[in-house]
Amino acid sequence: MAHGYTPGLRVTERALVRRRRHLPLPGQVHVQVGERVSADQLVASTELPGNVTNLNVAHELSCTPADVPDYLVVSVGDAVEIGEVIAETRALWGLFHSVATTPVSGTVETISEVTGQVLIRGKPIRVEIDAYLDGTVIEVEGDEAITVEARAAFLQGILGVGGEAHGDLKLVVESPDAVVEADLIDDSCAGCVLVGGSRVTLEALRAAAEVGAAGVVVGGVHGMDLNEFLGEPLGVAITGQEDVGTTLVLTEGFGEIAMAGRSWKLLAARSGRRTSINGATQIRAGVIRPEVIIPEPEATWEADGVDVSAGLAPGSYVRLIREPYFGRLAIVTDLPEQLQQIETEAHVRVLRARLEDTGEEITVPRANVEAIQR
């Protein structure tokens, strides 16, 4: 029961990170096992079939469907360009002239004498996949996928928006409790992953997107500011597809919450390092957490840390996720087996822990903490 209903996340300086990069359809893989790759390196590509456009030629020419083949000037398989004439009629010695032109560029796929319609397949859509993080290719799966591995400092957040990005890590504040204001964002932030403190303002988020910052990692944000930044209320299922110009990762949650000391130290010690970031978050089944990965290309150490899926134990590192200790870090000292009554008069399993900042011993419900792998 030690791990019942106990969420977990990782904040560690020594993680072995593997990311599978896969294509939606078989295509071409451009790297080999053992090859060193950079985050922005093209590792695989393919072409998706173009969209199909239905052109009613019989309607355009005011003729019967059976007559359409007689008026076509193209055949199945022919390439056509937007605005090109594909069928035409002439009557009364050419005085009355009707034409049908294609609204898209592509290839003539089918011609129907039953409906008088011509289907035009648009040009293929090219899909390119990058490596996402600096590392080594450890597996190639035919012409569809590869796996990249890196030894790295690794931090998971509480919530994120925006997709994959990478850039140099840059501190824009000097302490984990400082607020990121717009005047701290300038042209030097372009292409960087910015590290803030307790909160980022709406104006600062917009400034980061405007200068082209790759991402922002910060303790918290006001919910209304985030909705304004997104242009719509935040969804509840999964994030990561938002087109907002810069990826955002919250390490603590909503509001003004100082970034946890361990997270701040991990990031601050690696200022200037190449960093990969992904804001994708899923809070339902199959939990996905936003992440910050800082590879160490020359590292040879083995990954360490406690597996949070193994449950809580004395010595486990936890974050308090409800008041009155919300956001504070602690070390578990005891896990009493007996249910205890709390203020709501409910009988629940509790744990005893020592707060990291003050050393105070507290007793809280186990549901009020999340384990941190370090």
Features:
four-stranded antiparallel sheet; Glucose Oxidase, domain 1; 16-stranded mixed sheet; SH3 type barrels; 374 residues; 3 domains; 5 helices
Kindly summarize this structure in a few lines.
By secondary structure, the protein is mainly beta. The protein has 3 domains: 16-24 and 151-291, 3-Layer(bba) Sandwich (Glucose Oxidase, domain 1), CATH 3.50.30; 52-122, OB fold (Dihydrolipoamide Acetyltransferase, E2P) (Beta Barrel), CATH 2.40.50; 308-373, SH3 type barrels (Roll), CATH 2.30.30.
Plain-language structure description:
This protein folds into three domains: about 150 residues, 3-Layer(bba) Sandwich (Glucose Oxidase, domain 1); about 70 residues, OB fold (Dihydrolipoamide Acetyltransferase, E2P) (Beta Barrel), CATH 2.40.50; about 70 residues, Roll (SH3 type barrels), CATH 2.30.30.30. The chain contains five helices and 31 strands. Strand 27 and strand 28 form a beta hairpin. The chain is elongated and about 100 Å long. The two termini are about 20 Å apart.
Task: Indicate the percent of residues in helices.
Answer: under 10%
- The parts where pLDDT drops under 50 for at least 5 residues are 1-6
Number of strands: 31
**Overall geometric form:** elongated
CATH hierarchy, class of the largest domain: Alpha Beta
- The CATH topology of the largest domain is given as Glucose Oxidase, domain 1
Query: Roughly how many Å is the radius of gyration?
Result: 28 Å
Main sheet record: 16 strands, mixed
Q: What oligomeric state is this? A: single chain
